[in-house]
TrEMBL record:
<feature type="binding site">
    <location>
        <position position="414"/>
    </location>
    <ligand>
        <name>Zn(2+)</name>
    </ligand>
</feature>
<feature type="binding site">
    <location>
        <position position="305"/>
    </location>
    <ligand>
        <name>NAD(+)</name>
    </ligand>
</feature>
<keyword id="KW-0520">NAD</keyword>
<dbReference type="GO" id="GO:0005829">
    <property type="term" value="C:cytosol"/>
</dbReference>
<dbReference type="InterPro" id="IPR004150">
    <property type="entry name" value="NAD_DNA_ligase_OB"/>
</dbReference>
<comment type="function">
    <text>DNA ligase that catalyzes the formation of phosphodiester linkages between 5'-phosphoryl and 3'-hydroxyl groups in double-stranded DNA using NAD as a coenzyme and as the energy source for the reaction. It is essential for DNA replication and repair of damaged DNA.</text>
</comment>
<dbReference type="GO" id="GO:0006260">
    <property type="term" value="P:DNA replication"/>
</dbReference>
<keyword id="KW-0479">Metal-binding</keyword>
<feature type="binding site">
    <location>
        <position position="401"/>
    </location>
    <ligand>
        <name>Zn(2+)</name>
    </ligand>
</feature>
<feature type="active site" description="N6-AMP-lysine intermediate">
    <location>
        <position position="114"/>
    </location>
</feature>
<keyword id="KW-0460">Magnesium</keyword>
<feature type="binding site">
    <location>
        <begin position="79"/>
        <end position="80"/>
    </location>
    <ligand>
        <name>NAD(+)</name>
    </ligand>
</feature>
<keyword id="KW-0862">Zinc</keyword>
<keyword id="KW-0227">DNA damage</keyword>
<dbReference type="InterPro" id="IPR012340">
    <property type="entry name" value="NA-bd_OB-fold"/>
</dbReference>
<dbReference type="InterPro" id="IPR010994">
    <property type="entry name" value="RuvA_2-like"/>
</dbReference>
<dbReference type="Pfam" id="PF03120">
    <property type="entry name" value="OB_DNA_ligase"/>
</dbReference>
Length: 662
């Protein structure tokens, strides 16, 4: 293909993607796929000097929708040039310095998050928010004032009275998106499009249901004030109570910028809002004026893009796997794809209902998102690319044992708890795991042998195994058999919390098992616990409480537990574990904000160290642990010490505390 043809093809394709992304808020390719084509176009245009008039490299964003009134911005809005590597960043910096020429001042740079939402431009006049608009094509956007007013963090009135345009990004917090998707009939695939789609919805009531947020980062125009630097401008925004993200870093060289990027790059995944990189800007606004703009970007700023955490790929198949509780979970088989530097070929689809809601079919292209290094999740299908795709069939029979399955809520179960192999094998492995009964020597392989060769169909059967049984198994010698028998015997004398965990109650992890043991102190009491009482425990919510109650109402389970007890199992409550420490029996007051502990964490740690925690300071207090911005309690402690009365009271900083417990 000759280059002109390819250029025409790319322009056509990218304009189509732009339309889907900017106008419809329904992208059909990932940003990564878009960027690859865009970069190819930029390179070809440079090489051939051919620039088609409708090339996306000449234009900002997309055209405004006719349904909204259009709004002409006083100061135009721009796109951002981007760098993906340190070299590209250095090239940008060199270009800036070259443009500034000889007698330039040393440059300062600010780094901010690059929020991935919808650009909003807010107009204030006489201290009131009078207009809000999308970026549109940079010169003209859509007027979306009622929609923007649903964002509670944006001020409707401010102190400053001149005319001013404030730019920011409207977004949906990731936790809000997750909560929304749990209930939504039509789950949202991505936080950016969720925010963009909500703000460009004609009905502000719909916008309000999405509970959007915003961060402001620029003043495009302001009457009667001027700022020397970006930092000054940001201060002004903060003073006028605009939502400004707390992260902003001032650097005095490009080397410092690069070091900072290295520092915070990996932390971006943990933020509660979507970002697609960082923005680096020259701090001095007069220098910005000198540098000016290209057709599309400011020359004084650049986006440093991170590796995408969202990609698209093909869903090839869905396999159903049977877990310990008999639940069938769908596991997606994908065409292998690189996501954030890792190649993945499997992903989670939570359950049958999830597959329906997300409208995914075998052969569809799907959106895949990776967060916090867990297994990536399929967010939804690209409906335009599901042609010829086949429905995922709802399993009628267990893939492992062939039993007819049953449905409970959104989930599908194999009811054959007695002879469905994966259920029994994983139940044995869980029961004997270190945090549970700690029976050494139970690999998955061994559990399979017991199931297949010895016909173990119930955990209680483990206590019936004989030396002859075990020695008859493949890869079992005298020593291995004896050790295993001994470990099984030893487990009869077990701790209550370990036993409760070993039972494998759905939604009850090790921590909850310990809490239950500490609270109820005996197996009988836990088995009889009522829902109302369970939910009074600190970390037990409705779902966990209901699982516990249901579990102990199941006849089969009660039978199993009884058989275990008949075999001589004796779960004992051992009392709460407390470490002997300098804090044992000491009275401690915590005040102010600690850097390394939340209130709950420090309370738990101190309790574990044996301290008594109280809330008011007196001369009988032993320690006041004072974090930042400690107030009246710290003053009171100081007073007591200064008064010279007889007291053991000591004030500790967080650092001192940490050295003491080392
Ligand atoms: N998937 C698709 O189909 C598709 C289509 C078009 C564009 N895109 C994506 O969008 C990118 C280009 O889009 P663009 O021009 O809208 O955006 P951009 O990536 O060029 O960035 C400019 C925007 O960044 C935002 N921003 C966020 N935080 C900021 C901060 N701290 N300071 C300044 N600005 C900040 C602003 O809203 C500004 O408008 C492409 O690289 C591509 O990844 C994807
Ligand atoms: Zn089964």
């Amino acid at each position: 293909m000759d280059k002109l043809t390819r250029i025409k093809q790319l322009v056509g394709q990218l304009n189509q993607y732009n339309y889907q992304y900017y106008v419809m808020d329904q992208p059909i390719v990932s940003d990564k796929e878009y960027d690859v084509l865009y970069d190819e176009l930029v390179a070809l245009e440079k090489e051939t000097n051919i620039l088609l008039p409708d090339s996306p490299t000449l234009r900002v964003g997309g055209e405004p929708l006719k349904n909204f009134a259009s709004h002409r911005h006083t100061a135009p809005l721009w796109s951002l040039d981007k760098a993906k590597t340190e070299e590209e960043l250095l090239t940008w910096d060199a270009r800036v310095k070259r443009l500034l020429g000889e007698n330039q001042v040393p440059l300062e740079y600010v780094i901010e998050h690059k929020f991935d939402g919808l650009t909003i431009n807010l107009t204030y006049e006489g201290g009131e928010l009078v207009q809000a608009a999308t970026r549109g094509n940079g010169a003209v956007g859509e007027s979306i004032l009622p929609q923007v007013k649903t964002i509670r963090s944006l001020p409707l009135s401010i102190e400053f009275e001149g005319k001013m345009e404030v730019q920011g990004e409207g977004l949906m917090k990731l936790s809000v998106l997750e909560a929304y998707n749990k209930k939504a009939l039509d789950p949202l695939k991505n936080a950016r499009n969720a925010a963009a789609g909500a703000l460009r919805n004609l009905d502000p009531k719909v916008t309000a249901t999405r509970k959007l947020d915003a961060f402001c980062y620029n003043i495009g125009y302001s009457e009667g004030t001027s700022f020397a630097t970006h930092m000054e401008m940001i201060d002004f925004l903060r003073k006028n109570k605009f939502p400004v993200n707390q992260y902003i870093k001032l650097c005095s060289s490009i080397t410092e910028v690069i070091a900072e990027i290295q520092q915070i790059k990996d932390k971006a995944k943990d933020l509660d809002f979507l970002t697609d990189g960082l923005v680096i800007k020259i701090n001095d606004l007069r220098v910005r004026e000198q540098l000016g703009y290209t057709q599309k970007f400011p020359r004084w700023a650049i986006a440093f893009k991170f590796e995408a955490q969202e990609v698209t790929t093909e869903l090839r198949d869905v396999l159903w796997q049977v877990g310990r509780t008999g639940k069938l979970t769908p596991s997606a088989v994908l065409e292998p794809v690189d996501i954030g530097g890792v190649t993945v070929s499997r992903a989670t689809l939570n359950n049958w209902e999830d597959i329906q809601r997300k409208k995914v079919k075998k052969g569809c292209r799907v959106w895949l998102r990776r967060s916090n290094d867990v297994i990536p999740e399929i967010m939804g299908a690209i409906e335009e690319e599901c042609e010829g795709a086949k429905e995922v069939e709802k399993p009628e029979y267990c893939p492992a044992c062939g039993s007819e399955v049953i449905e409970k809520g959104a989930h599908i179960f194999c009811p054959n708890t007695l002879s469905c192999k994966p259920q029994m094998v994983s139940a044995i492995v869980h029961y004997s795991s270190r945090d549970a009964m700690d029976i050494e020597g139970f690999s998955e392989k061994t559990a399979e042998q017991l199931y297949e060769t010895l016909g173990i169909k119930d955990i209680a059967d483990l206590y019936q195994l004989s030396y002859e049984n075990l020695i008859s198994l493949e890869r079992f010698g005298d020593k291995k058999a004896k050790n295993l028998l001994q470990a099984i015997e030893k487990s009869k004398d077990c701790r209550l919390d370990a036993f409760v965990y070993a039972l494998g109650i759905p939604n009850v992890g090790r921590k909850t098992a310990t809490d239950l043991a500490n609270y109820f102190k005996s197996l009988e009491k836990i088995m009889e616990a009522q829902y109302e009482e369970l939910i009074t425990l600190p970390d037990v919510g409705g779902i966990v409480a209901a699982s516990i109650v249901d579990f102990f109402q199941d006849e089969k389970i009660l039978g199993s537990i009884q058989r275990l007890l008949d075999k001589g199992l004796h779960p004992k409550y051992q009392g709460e574990e407390k470490e002997e420490s300098i804090f044992t029996e000491k009275t401690v007051v915590v005040t102010g904000t600690l850097k390394n502990y939340s209130r709950k964490e420090i309370k738990e740690l101190l309790e574990k160290l044996g301290a008594k925690i109280t809330s008011s300071v007196s001369k009988n207090t032993d320690y006041v642990l004072a974090g930042e911005e400690a107030g009246s309690k710290l003053d009171k402690a100081q007073e007591i010490i200064n008064a010279g009365v007889e007291t053991n009271l000591r004030i500790l900083t967080e650092e001192e505390f940490e050295t003491m417990i080392k």
